[in-house]
Design goal:
The strands form two sheets. A four-stranded antiparallel beta sheet has the order 1-2-6-3. The protein has a single domain (4-86), classed as Alpha-Beta Plaits, CATH 3.30.70. With 96 residues, the chain is α+β, with helices and mostly antiparallel strands. Strand 4 and strand 5 form a beta hairpin. The chain contains four helices and six strands, in the order H-E-H-E-H-E-E-E-E-H.
Length: 96
């Protein structure tokens, strides 16, 4: 069984995620690659004491990078977009 902190790794703060937070009350997190929607929903609700309406997940493929003549690849990861109930806020994101 994964702990809550293993499921939700870190918040993603970008221009797009900031607009989603302001306009649609959606937050974006990097999550464990093996986590499903139910685990993500439970982890966010328990960690931040909010009510989650829905969860969307996206498998992000790592970009190819080049170091001189050698090709490499960044790791693959999973992103989750979590929609909160109207009126719910997470204070961590308010300063961003």
């Amino acid at each position: 069984m994964k702990t809550l902190y293993e499921v939700v790794k870190r918040p993603l703060i970008t221009e797009k995620s900031t607009l989603q937070k302001d306009q649609h009350n959606q937050l974006t997190f990097e999550v464990d690659r093996k986590a499903n929607k139910l685990e993500i929903k439970k982890a966010v609700e328990d960690l931040f004491k909010v009510k989650v309406i829905n969860v969307r997940v996206i498998n992000m493929e790592g970009k190819q990078k080049r170091m001189g003549r050698f090709l490499g690849k960044k790791r693959d990861w999973k992103k989750a977009v979590v929609r909160l109930r109207t009126g719910d806020r997470i204070e961590f994101f308010e300063g961003a």
